[in-house]
Amino acid sequence: LRVASPHFTHAVVNIGKTNTIMSLLGREDFSPEELAQRIEKQCRPGQFFSFNVGDLCERLLDSKLYANIMMLGVAYQLGFIPVSYKSLTWAIRHAVGREFERNYRAFNIGRKIVLRPDLFGVAAPREVETVEGAIERKAKILQVSSAWGRRNAREYRAMCKDTLAQMPQLDDAAKRDYVIRLFDAIQWGTLVYGRGYATRVVRTYAQDNPERAFAVTRAVIWNLAKVMMIKDEVYVAMMYTSPEKYRRDRRRFNVNPANGDKIKYLHLNRPEFEIAGFKLRFHLKGRDWHMRILRHCRWLRTLLPGWHAREKAFRDWYMRLVDTCELHEPWLYNLWLDIMRSPEPVTGFREVRYPKMEAAQSRVKELQRAIAAGKADSQLRNIPRSVSLSNQVIGAFRGSA
User: Fold this and answer.
1) What stretches of 298-382 show up as alpha helix (H) in DSSP?
2) What is the pLDDT of residues 355-382, one digit of tens each?
């Protein structure tokens, strides 16, 4: 923005989000769309092009590594680069060596994006997974995740069917979010833990308002899962060794086991334990087989009651809020919606997350005071006139006395 000018500048912008270190730490965030709008204002009219090149590159070439070359192709086709096609291809060949074929393909895909954007999903949105498809996908993972997998998968399907039948007006996107997070709850704990999540969501829906698009229910679906799925080392090991993660990695790195291709994993973690008031934190370099063992060690949570104690206290606090939620009076709705959304800003590593947890709890206390004051005012407004007059007479008598 320091050097751009609406009189001279042309721009090709990748609006795929690439997190910075600060956003990964949870200290700040940004919207690629808003940044693209700011850049466009500094460009010549009609000389700005934006596209989610990163996602397209990963979909077509299994990696985002070729995004810059793809953007170069876009810029060339738009006429923004005063260099011949022959010179560009010569430069690409001599710069990348063995990877020329893939980079050359990425360059030409960029050119094609300009000529036929409809071929790359601009006009046709990507197909969204159905609720039933999500249930089956997650049930299959449960089936192979433990010795009790078949039973867990059967119970999960039944739980989804029963609870979704009690929430018929919820839109498909919210239902899909719900069944995926119900799966996460069962994976984190047990079927009992999953039922606790499902029961609270259904109870919230029962008193929610369809005219508000079930906003409170949707907030509970997301945030209750967020606080219940504490990322301790056991759950992190589950995510490291998920069949879905293995599948994504094979696609991303173009690994084909049928050809003898393999991936070796080294998982970096920094667990923390509190023993007799002392905090023990160390770096852990785990192999894949370590993680596959650790994922079955839920008993560590009972053996180490102080493990992630602050996260557990925050989870229990939010669960009590969900249990006491009241949406029967219209004036309460927005207050409770803010309360149910309170965990949303709680992100980042421990040192960043803990102050955010305290801030969320302080904010909820203010909202609860507002609810209490509103109820008190409502009760005063509902006092019969005769009682009100009697109180006025008693007050006047005490004043004269």
Assistant:
1) 299-303, 309-323, 333-340, 350-381
2) 999 999 999 999 999 888 877 776 655 5
* HEC secondary structure over 300-318: HHHHCCCCCHHHHHHHHHH
DSSP state of 34: H
Task: Measure CA 181 to chain center.
Answer: 11
H/E run at residue 268: strand 266-269
The answer to whether residues 208 and 330 touch, using CB atoms and an 8 Å cutoff, is: no
Nearest-10 crossing angle of helices 191-207, 172-188: 150
Give tens-digit pLDDT for 46-97: 888 888 888 888 778 777 888 899 999 999 998 998 889 999 989 988 888 7
Distance (Å, rounded) from C-alpha 341 to C-alpha 216?
8
The pTM (predicted TM-score) of the whole model is 0.67
- CA–CA distances in Å: residue 212 to residues 142, 309, 329: 34, 36, 13
Which among 168, 233, 228 is positioned nearest to 195, based on CA atoms? 228
- Residue 108 in contact with residue 102, Cβ under 8 Å? no
Which DSSP helix (H) or strand (E) runs through 40? helix 32-41
Residues 56, 41: Cα–Cα separation, whole Å: 25
CA-to-CA separations, 118 to 47, 51, 73, 104, in angstroms, rounded: 20, 12, 17, 21
CA 104 from chain centre, in angstroms, equals 35
Q: Which residue bears the tokens 């023990």?
A: 280
Mean pLDDT for the chain overall: 84
3 state SS of 11? strand
